[in-house]
């Protein structure tokens, strides 16, 4: 009988050759892989740092080119509005008047354009002052507020003042009547006519009647 081929010497020589060749190939592959790995530069992922915002430069303020006269006119206008409760038109006219402040028209216009004020409140204060110190009628006060020869308030400002003022016009009529009687020795009927006259005190008929009925009390 023939020996099985795996028992023959040449079979084992072939096996040894194959094993050695395989071992050598694996070793070469590992060296090549290691060489490739070592020579490949590492790529580091750098995180982008947020850019720092540069501080904004302070905006340069515009130079104040307002003339001194304009500033003075504005201060004077503010004073008239606050201390004398004047109207906007009244202040303007006072600023430019030859008998007043004598500012230029440009300075006065600048002042009024830059003056922020509650003109209705001023009209109300003026109205109450006329009622209290001069014992005027409601219609008389209104006409004085809007008059070009008076306070020069706008119509809406005068209306606001009349609607919101606090005054006893019956008592005002009585005080006026007593003043006419004392200083001018007028008769009751003459006083009545003066109280209600459109060219006089402009009280209502009811207010005048109250005054005459209480004149001797």
From TrEMBL:
Residues 25-68, 180-207 are annotated as: Disordered. Residues 69-115, 118-164, 169-215 form the Putative host cell surface-exposed lipoprotein Ltp-like HTH region domain. The keyword Lipoprotein applies. Keywords: Lipoprotein. The keyword Cell division does not apply. InterPro entries: Ltp-like_HTH (IPR011434), WH-like_DNA-bd_sf (IPR036388). Residues 43-66 have a biased composition (Basic and acidic residues). Gene3D superfamilies: Winged helix-like DNA-binding domain superfamily/Winged helix DNA-binding domain. This is Ltp family lipoprotein.
């Amino acid at each position: 009988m023939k020996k099985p081929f795996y028992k023959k010497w040449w079979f084992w020589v072939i096996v040894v050759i194959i094993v050695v060749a395989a071992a050598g190939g694996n070793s070469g592959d590992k060296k090549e892989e290691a060489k490739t790995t070592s020579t490949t530069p590492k790529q580091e992922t750098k995180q982008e740092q947020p850019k720092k915002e540069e501080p904004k430069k302070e905006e340069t303020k515009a130079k104040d080119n307002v003339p001194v006269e304009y500033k003075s006119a504005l201060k004077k206008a503010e004073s008239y509005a606050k201390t004398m409760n004047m109207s906007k038109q009244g202040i303007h006219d006072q600023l430019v008047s030859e008998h007043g402040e004598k500012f230029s028209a440009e300075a006065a216009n600048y002042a009024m354009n830059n003056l922020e004020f509650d003109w209705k409140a001023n009209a109300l204060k003026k109205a109450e002052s006329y009622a209290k110190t001069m014992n005027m009628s409601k219609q008389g006060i209104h006409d004085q507020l809007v008059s070009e020869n008076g306070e020069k308030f706008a119509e809406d400002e005068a209306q606001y003042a009349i609607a919101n003022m606090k005054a006893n016009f019956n008592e005002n009529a009585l005080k006026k009547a007593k003043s006419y009687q004392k200083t001018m020795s007028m008769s009751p009927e003459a006083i009545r006519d003066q109280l209600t006259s459109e060219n006089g005190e402009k009280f209502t008929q009811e207010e005048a009647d109250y005054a005459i009925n209480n004149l001797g009390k």
